[in-house]
Design a protein that fits this description.
The strands form six sheets. This protein has a seven-stranded mixed β-sheet with strand order 10-22-21-20-11-18-19, with helices on both faces. Strands 2-1-3-9-4-7 form a six-stranded antiparallel β-sheet, with no helix packed on it. The radius of gyration is 33 Å and the shape is elongated. It is built from 24 helices and 26 strands. β14 and β15 (385-390) form a beta hairpin. The protein starts with a helix and ends with a helix. 48% of the residues are buried.
Amino acid sequence: MIQEWAGFSLRIPLQGGIMLVLSGIIYFYGGWPFLRGLAEEVGGRKPGMMTLVGTALSVAFFYSSLTLFREGEDFFWELATLVDLMLLGHWMEARSLLGASRALEKLARLMPSQAHLLVGDEVREVAVSELRRGDLVLVRPGEKVPSDGRVVEGVSSVDEALLTGESRPVPKRPGDRVIGGSLNLEGALRVEIEKTGEESYVGRVMEMVRKAQESRSRTQELADRASALLFYVALGTALLSFSYWYLSGRPSFAFERAVTVMVVACPHALGLAIPLVVSLSTTLTARRGILVRERRAFEALRKVGVVVFDKTGTLTSGTLEVSDYLSLLPEEELLSLTAGVEKNSEHPIGKALVEFAKKKGAAIPEAEEFQSLPGRGARARVLGKEVLVGGVSLLRERKVEPVGKEGWRGKTVIQVLVEGRPAGAFALSDRVKEESREAVEGLKKQGLRVMMITGDGEEAAREVAEKLGVEEYWAQASPEEKAARIEELRRKGETVAMVGDGVNDAPALVAADVGIAIGAGTDVAVESADLVLVRNDPRDIAHLMEFSRKSYSKMVQNLWWAAGYNALTIPLASGAFREWGLTLSPALGALLMSLSTVVVALNTQTLRRYGPEEVEETVADPVCGMEVEPSSAAGRAEYGGKTFYFCSKRCEETFRKDPEKYSSRER
């Protein structure tokens, strides 16, 4: 075609044979994904895009091969163009669709690789995989519990937030059960192993994620349905055209018309209509800090009727803070004495009390004779006075009645004794994010039902639900129960989006029609989800749903453009208007195919005007590598003349323990 336009002709020795060899390589190697897809679709009696493309490629190649031995116009050039464009569309589609989930790998990483096995009075280092039911292990402060078991000796508190959603450290005493992968915060524990491998909590979650991923239904693409219809139309038209012209006494022209119909019907524009929108919409959402891992879920957002939120770390910050307090001493004295005891504490509650005292501007004196009381609290001498800070169990030991206020139910209450007498109390709770209120209101304005499901207690769940105006919620839900609730809603005909950040949310994220992970949460939740909110801002969900509707609209428009091209070219290619001098040559058909692709590409670019606003420039969290916006970071620290920003309080605490290690780390 280019030679015809430029007015010259270039031929080389054995050109026909060389064309055949090169086209054969393109057909068999480049066209292999489509030929394999054709066989699978025909074998499954579900012809679609692959059947249409594979048929067009085959007809073009084999008919063109025959033209080397008989008269006729070959389609070798069109074949090469066809394979190139279809592979481009196929690659763009695969790039957004594939990339196997690493959720199971991330879950496995939660478990420690080594355990301290107790054999008599000896402590042996063994691999966790070697543990058996009945083994006795030692879990030191700051270490993870190697597998599910029961405490036989020791008192401590355990952080289960990433596993169960429980925002508060859980006290553990002899007889209490502990979960493998949870973090021991204070005292040493001796644990008898009860469950290992797939029987453990994390093992069961892994199995649920695996089953849900394997059983997830994959809805048929719009383009596939259009291609199936187009295949039957093109095949029927080609057969009718061939029959008509053959019976008219023009067998060569009949065969050429049939081949031309199949070639021009091959959906260049149709093959790119969906992938182009997917590629652009994925880029635009990423600029707002929204990562699309599964495009079917992104498209399904437009049909979502129910949005279910996890509580801890999703609607709340996931860290404790003082929400109320009662002082029987001068306020500043109570704060100074309490913070003095907890000044050097690594416990989340102790850190929250110190942070509160700093905000109030109280002086924090040095403590003497500090003593940690695992599972109960701490004591020290501050400003010459004996001060005890701890829970109700500490007061019971001292036979002292606790103090407090009405409305503290469901909160973590810490009592303070000075010289053996009640001096005050603090109520701590998980802070509700300001963005969460706007997110819930925005979703309700779109006519969506908003629900909450959490592994936390009833009182804590009710308090958050009331603050946010969420009428429907479930508390104390296990991972199995969370996934079951989602399945129940889907059985009722609801299209459900689940938003979460913890390991215990992973099965529910996979079970939902659309799983949305908060980016600052666990790797397991992120890898189990279809969409990831890197900014940790639930307000992005409303923007995402609106953009999903716009993107879907562009897909439909592109399909209409592609269908319009075929409605015009197929009758022309068949020779139906030959009497009026209108017959489509293969060269002109190829040109029209290219023009239809350009139209689809230009129409797709108009999606940019609806794209979400771009986020501010982000920086990498030095601990986990997550991209963080400085203005909305969960924490910041100065070290070595640089400022570091963190996606979560946990990362900030990890950094402060060893800033030298993380400040120089290559990310």
